[in-house]
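Suppose you are handed a protein chain with no further information: no name, no annotation, nothing but its sequence. What can you learn? This example shows the usual starting point.
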Amino acid sequence: MFLTATAMGRVQKKPCLSPHIEPQSLPPLPDIFTEELRRQVFMHRSYYARPTNVFEDSPDDPSPDNEALEHLGDTVLNMVVTELIQEIYPHVRVGPSTKMRSLVVGNQNLATITRMYGLNDRLVCHHAQEIALKASHNIQANLFEAYVGGLYMDRGMVGLEDIKRWMRALFRPWLSEAYRVVRIEHGLSPDPEPSPTRTDRSLGAPSRVSPSIGHLSLFNQYLQQKNIVVEWVYKDSAGEGTRTTPVWIVRAMVDQECLGRGRGNTKKAARNEAAKEGLQKMGVYVPQPVSQDI
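A reasonable first move is to predict its three-dimensional structure. Written in structure tokens, the prediction is:
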């Protein structure tokens, strides 16, 4: 998980994908056949200690490190993952699709893949920085992108389909989890419900009934995903209701910190209001009902 600040000023975990994948189940890593390219893929710029403020290398002395291949590999990687999203989830809109791709190609995930293939052990860098560089998630992620760029340069357009087949098989588990995570961020259940069979009646005017947002359900689901335990603390509401219409007041407490407060004529309604406030404070997207008056 990544850590980010919330509106409450406290640190919150940001989604990070972690599908259960055994190294032996990974699709075989394609080889880079050109020796010069293979050497460049694993060459970190620290090895030659060239200055970083140079605008352009001399044609007679191009930089031997992997940064150019990393730049190319990043582009190939984004293209292939975008195609894979459109292939598996053709109806996902561009906004959620972009979030899914960002999660899949994030540094944490690419670093994990690099370690699973053992690529970081082959990194060539300055001996004084070797331990720190090989352990860096950013460097590991950059190395994977450089490897993808090296594959593309080695195979060219003719071999691009082979690269795509490998990457599709590799990223499917990560993409499946990213789909579930982004659905939750958009206030939906992790897995879509089966679409009802369309009838002529379904083609009529849209319903004017406001949908139930279900803040409480989403709130509980979100906390469960992050292994956070919530305690519902009720407050005395004497004098605020009647015998037939009582008023319940509740606070959603996590580690002695109040995430949200709510009140309602039932305990569930009060918890739902507290959950709504809690979701807002945690930065979770909650869709609002839209008027359908036409």
